């Protein structure tokens, strides 16, 4: 195996372990019974954290790289995925696609929940959760097709040639044409499936964030609501970071895709540049998201019992 696949496997595996560990730690914080936060916010953070755990784990052992050649997009998987039975490999790939699409499809849910908490406080918790996540279910789009055996075998041979992988070294290759007229074309999925769900999801996200910002600024500052307002502002900052970060993170893979469509995609330098961008960036993204969640959760955790007892003893002595 050549240098680039080995580097990809090593780097992505390490990043996957780090992202997995950080998000598991965030999940442990979320299940701490002393955590001072509302049930709706807690559940939304649990859903997103479990999604990041899945992304870190599957991306880490799948180790995917991009390749564009002769108007064909290749997804070449190294790591542990090729040594699994075919059905297990296919299940892992479908799960990975679901989790990746969920990055933008699940983005509106936390901000819808906060909007309802601020502007519709009379709604019950189950009703808020149903309204928020039903939007994500409607937005959900995932189309994954497995091409003919002969076509996949031809693509696997091209992938082995480019990455200098011998026949006895396993690789899992999925491919699709970038030509509209081809029966294996990925363009209808990209333009008529992914793009609408991506656009609508972030449109809802933007509208809700604007309404939340206005609601927080007109919130009455009395003694009882001060603590609640601080919690609302912290959660708003958290959902802003977790919602806008995918826009920045996914810009490189999307740019690589369109460069493959319209640019000189057959050049070897371009192949080298693009080949390990998506898995590495996805795992960095999940790591940063986990750190954002941890930062929010640590501020909500009450002081330890020892600190509380010592402060009470100090107060009693003063009296």
Structural class: mainly alpha
At CATH level 3, the topology is Rhopdopsin 7-helix transmembrane proteins
Report the uncertain regions.
Answer: 265-277, 304-319
Spatial order of the strands in the main sheet?
1-2-3
By CATH, the architecture is named Up-down Bundle
The CATH top-level class label: Mainly Alpha
How many whole angstroms does the radius of gyration measure? 23 Å
Strand fraction equals 5-15%
- Principal-axis shape equals elongated
Number of helices: 12
Pfam family, one: 7TM_GPCR_Str
Protein name: G protein-coupled receptor
InterPro entries: 7TM_GPCR_serpentine_rcpt_Str
Structure in words:
The protein has a single domain, classed as Rhodopsin 7-helix transmembrane proteins (Rhopdopsin 7-helix transmembrane proteins, Up-down Bundle). It has 12 helices and 3 strands, in the order ααββααααβαααααα. β1 and β2 form a beta hairpin. Helices cover 72% and strands 6% of the residues. InterPro entries: 7TM_GPCR_serpentine_rcpt_Str.
